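Query structure, 288 tokens:
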């Protein structure tokens, strides 16, 4: 990454953190979208996103715990399998193509999430432990593989399935993001033994933007407009990742043409017209 790009990336993370926190979201998908649009490599996107998740989710977890909304019995079934699966997902590095496609799909689904607000049920019941463990394991694996945290899917799922009230669902999800991001980061560092040097700078930008957004963002701007703007950013980044790359395919095709010409002209029998054999026989007869 060039030094010219870094200030723009810092500004992007700062703005996204401000907008997400102003509407009560951690912002993992937004950070990944900004880093994707900046052209960062997957091996840099995942660990940085996991670190940003840990920072933002730690603040949210403390706030929900202080408010009395966190319930251990609602949290542990989702976390018991998700933590080791997140470590495994963080350790594994997908091929670049599949990483981009998976991240692109998640960003598009995250964008759709801003257009859908499930209604809170008046009566809720926690899921069976087996169901929660399976759901948590799947989301934990996605969290480690992509760096998204998994909360973007867990919160609406809990509310739609009427497993817990809104506040409890949000508290469960933010702690879920925290433990899985920490586990995924440990897995990633175990595999790569490295972390991008500019990640610390982006972390400072995310904290500053998140603090400012949570304090004054929603008071100055319409939450609906902010969500629509964030959805547009996610759609652009997601579409960029899942779309085919015709320019690259065209370059590969054009680069193969010289090789084809060289093969035809430099090896094998020379190409002859249909009358060549007859002309050669006539020349030999005249020569005799």
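Result returned for the query:
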């Amino acid at each position: 990454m060039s030094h010219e790009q870094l200030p723009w990336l810092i500004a992007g993370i700062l703005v996204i953190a401000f907008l997400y926190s102003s509407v009560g979201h951690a912002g993992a998908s937004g950070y990944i979208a900004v880093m994707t649009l900046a052209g960062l490599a997957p091996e840099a996107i995942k660990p940085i996103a996991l670190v940003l998740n840990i920072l933002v989710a730690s603040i949210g977890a403390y706030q929900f715990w202080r408010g009395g909304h966190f319930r251990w019995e609602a949290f542990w079934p989702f976390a018991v399998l998700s933590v080791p699966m997140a470590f495994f997902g963080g350790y594994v590095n997908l091929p670049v193509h599949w990483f981009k496609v998976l991240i692109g799909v998640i960003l598009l689904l995250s964008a759709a999430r801003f257009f859908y607000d499930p209604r809170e049920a008046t009566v809720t019941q926690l899921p069976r432990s087996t169901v929660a463990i399976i759901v948590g394991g799947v989301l934990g694996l996605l969290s480690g593989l992509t760096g998204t945290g998994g909360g973007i899917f867990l919160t609406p799922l809990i509310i739609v399935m009427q497993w817990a009230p809104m506040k409890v669902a949000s508290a469960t999800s933010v702690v879920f993001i925290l433990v899985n991001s920490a586990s995924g980061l440990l897995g990633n560092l175990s595999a790569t033994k490295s972390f991008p040097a500019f990640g610390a700078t982006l972390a400072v930008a995310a904290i500053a933007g998140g603090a400012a957004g949570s304090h004054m963002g929603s008071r100055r701007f319409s939450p609906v407009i902010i969500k629509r703007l964030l959805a547009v950013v996610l759609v652009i980044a997601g579409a960029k990742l899942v779309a085919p790359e015709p320019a690259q395919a065209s370059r590969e095709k054009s680069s193969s043409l010289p090789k084809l010409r060289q093969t035809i002209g430099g090896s094998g029998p020379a190409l002859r017209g249909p009358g060549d054999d007859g002309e050669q026989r006539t020349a030999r007869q005249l020569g005799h």
